[in-house]
């Protein structure tokens, strides 16, 4: 009489095999051929965060997911999809069909550059109801991205723009659920655009109590945004702020530190700041912050953790979390 191992034990055996540093694709197929249950365990592990590294691999993967003769619902296993390596080959139609077959997608990386068009955003909104994180690189179809509408991506929590040509009108369509915004090398954005964006969100928050608020903000190498940051960065509502780039100097950070607010974490990476910034922070931690009368010249921003990395004008012994 055949004896069947409990499902939990079979799952544990597969987990040990799949997490072994020496396993390869050949070994994966061996595990999948044991039985359908093992194939389910393997697909749950391998396809959960799927990174497509070659166009030929993408075609094979696409055919497996959309096939009507598939043994398992492969698309259901995918929660994270990275298309960075292949999206320059004109994969729009296949990408649309792939997303339609992946209802559990929570994170999508379109990469840089990409041939995917704004209609892809609407397609994701229709079929990827669980999408929480979206990363977009510069679109080769430059003019079309300027009028892209993100409002249909209800449920989106994090969005990352990298050299993406956005106008204010497109930025204003970001959904009310957004909590984290990353801007990387966004030369098309300026201070006026960001002022309008956060003012728009503030007004929406006043009108609707359920309207979310951005609590995490990252600015990396955005040269047109570093001046007058105090006019638009809402430090009063942020928990986490990351500033990166050689355009950022002492005066920029000192201006931020002079604003009233509470941050869990401030990250300063690859900037040109000096020990002036550290001394300014110490003026608050040492109990010498400004009084209620608003006397200038002291740090007013409460920071629980200051993370420093790759700031070339700081001594190596200062490059650490404080």
Description:
It comes from Absidia glauca. The protein is an alpha/beta fold and 322 residues long. The chain has a domain of 37 residues. The protein is 34% helix and 16% strand. The chain contains 12 helices and 10 strands. Strands 1-2-3-4-5-6-7-8-9-10 form a 10-stranded parallel sheet, with no helix packed on it. The longest helix is centred in the middle third of the chain and has 17 residues.
Characterize this entry briefly.
The protein has 322 residues and is α/β, with parallel strands linked by helices.
List the main descriptive attributes of the protein structure presented here.
322 residues; alpha/beta; ten-stranded parallel beta sheet; LRR_dom_sf; F-box domain-containing protein
Low-confidence parts lasting 5 or more residues at pLDDT below 50?
A: 288-296
Summarize the amount of helix as a percent range. 25-40%
Strand percentage: 15-25%
The main β sheet shows up as: 10 strands, parallel
- Compute the gyration radius: what is it? 24 Å
Strand order in space, largest sheet:
1-2-3-4-5-6-7-8-9-10
What coarse outline follows from CA principal-axis ratios? globular
Helix-strand topology string: HHHEHHEHEHEHEHEHEEHEHE
- Got a strand count? 10
The mean pLDDT is 80
- Secondary-structure-based class equals alpha/beta
| Distance, first to last CA | 64 Å
Protein name: F-box domain-containing protein
List the helices and strands and how they pair.
Elements: H1 7-18, H2 25-32, H3 36-46, E1 49-51, H4 55-66, H5 74-77, E2 80-82, H6 92-100, E3 107-109, H7 118-127, E4 133-136, H8 142-145, E5 158-162, H9 168-171, E6 180-184, H10 191-207, E7 216-220, E8 240-244, H11 250-257, E9 261-269, H12 275-285, E10 301-309
Parallel strand pairs: 1-2, 2-3, 3-4, 4-5, 5-6, 6-7, 7-8, 8-9, 9-10
Helix pairs in contact: 1-3, 6-7, 11-12
């Amino acid at each position: 009489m055949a004896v069947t191992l409990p499902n939990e034990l079979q799952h544990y055996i597969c987990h040990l095999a799949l997490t072994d540093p020496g396993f390869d694709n050949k070994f994966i197929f061996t595990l999948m051929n044991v039985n359908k249950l093992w194939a389910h365990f393997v697909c749950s592990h391998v396809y959960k965060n799927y990174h497509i590294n070659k166009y030929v691999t993408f075609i094979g993967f696409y055919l497996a997911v959309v096939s009507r003769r598939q043994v398992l619902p492969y698309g259901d296993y995918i929660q994270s999809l990275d298309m960075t390596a292949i999206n320059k080959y004109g994969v729009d139609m296949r990408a649309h069909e792939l997303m339609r077959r992946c209802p559990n997608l929570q994170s999508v990386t379109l990469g840089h550059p990409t041939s995917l068009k704004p209609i892809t955003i609407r397609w994701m909104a229709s079929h990827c109801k669980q999408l929480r994180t979206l990363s977009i690189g510069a679109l080769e179809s430059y003019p079309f991205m300027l009028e892209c509408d993100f409002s249909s991506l209800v449920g989106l929590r994090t969005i990352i723009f990298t050299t993406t040509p956005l106008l204010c009108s497109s930025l204003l369509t970001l959904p009310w659920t957004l909590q984290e915004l990353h801007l990387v090398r966004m030369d098309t954005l300026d201070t006026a655009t960001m002022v309008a964006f956060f003012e728009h969100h503030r007004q929406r928050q006043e009108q609707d109590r359920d309207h979310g608020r951005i609590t995490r903000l990252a600015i990396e190498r955005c040269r047109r945004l570093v001046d007058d940051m105090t006019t638009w960065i809402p430090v009063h509502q942020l928990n986490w702020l990351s500033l990166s780039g050689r355009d950022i100097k002492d005066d920029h950070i000192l201006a931020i530190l002079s604003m009233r607010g509470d941050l869990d974490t401030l990250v300063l990476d690859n900037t040109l700041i000096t020990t002036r910034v550290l001394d300014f922070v110490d003026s608050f931690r040492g109990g010498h912050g400004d009084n209620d009368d608003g006397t200038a010249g002291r740090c007013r921003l409460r920071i629980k953790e200051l993370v420093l990395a790759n700031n070339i004008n700081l001594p190596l012994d200062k490059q650490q979390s404080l």
